[in-house]
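pinned: reference chain
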Amino acid sequence: MITEKDLTHIGWLARLELSEKDIEKYTPKLNSVIDYFSELDEVDRDGVEPTYHVLALSNVFREDEVNPKACLDQDEALSNAPSKLDGFFKAPRMM
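pinned: its structure tokens
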């Protein structure tokens, strides 16, 4: 059971400014939500597999393969660089 003091503390933790009217309004609503969860605890779950995701999806990764046509060599990569030094892009110094 959530008390008005608990709700005030939860609001403080969440950085919410709750008026007395809000606290009086939402305390019973929050308690009804918690009561609903206690009803769910009474449901027979024997033989029911846990559902981690509603769709049976898994990540599909492709193999990493080098494609020489899609890669630039160092000279090509630096060909349009406005500034370069020792085979690298040169960028302005950041402070």
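why pinned: Strands lie at 84-85, 88-89. DSSP finds three helices and two strands in the chain.
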